[in-house]
Specification:
With 146 residues, the protein is α+β, with helices and mostly antiparallel strands. Helix content is 36%, strand content 30%. The chain has a four-stranded antiparallel sheet, with helices on one face. Helix 1 packs antiparallel against helix 3. The longest helix is centred in the N-terminal third of the chain and has 19 residues, at 37-55.
């Protein structure tokens, strides 16, 4: 059975999308006045695509003993039985910004596997995700992050 988990989308990602749209509007105001719509639409489409693939595209699913992670760079497979440690309440690299609302980060967890490898995941329902992993292998050490 395939269990799919969507990525968690925080409010800050929507704020960043609006900021990008306003920024494009300000930059291209002169081009719009001169009726150069094609370039404006092209740039707008590129920025919306980047925003979508950054915040909304990622998916996780579990099939058998494998966790699959779909990102813009492809699908990655991790054997769940090779995960000895899971650190919760972690933030991705954008998390060091000072403004709470404007943080375009991902709050999630770090999966440690194969002794030296790790991957950051941010499923929408973290408790259900952890429970699904623990059903497959109960020896995963869940550590609360800072």
């Amino acid at each position: 059975m395939k269990k799919v988990f969507k990525t968690h989308i925080n409010f800050g990602s929507y704020i960043w999308g609006i900021v990008v749209i306003v920024f494009i509007g300000v930059l291209l105001f002169e081009a719009l006045e001169k009726e150069r719509y094609i370039g404006t639409l092209l740039l707008f489409g590129i920025c919306v695509s980047i925003w979508y693939f950054t915040f909304f595209f990622k998916r996780y699913w579990i099939e058998g003993h494998n966790l699959f992670i779909k990102t813009i760079s492809g699908v990655r497979s991790i054997d769940i039985r090779s995960i000895p440690k899971l650190e919760t309440n972690k933030v991705d690299w954008f998390g060091s910004m000072g403004f709470t609302v404007l943080k375009p980060y991902r709050r999630g967890m770090v999966l440690r596997y194969n002794v030296v490898d790790h991957v950051f995941v941010d499923p929408e329902n973290a408790v259900e995700f952890i429970n699904e992993l623990k059903q497959i292998t109960s020896n995963i050490d869940v550590v609360q992050g800072k």
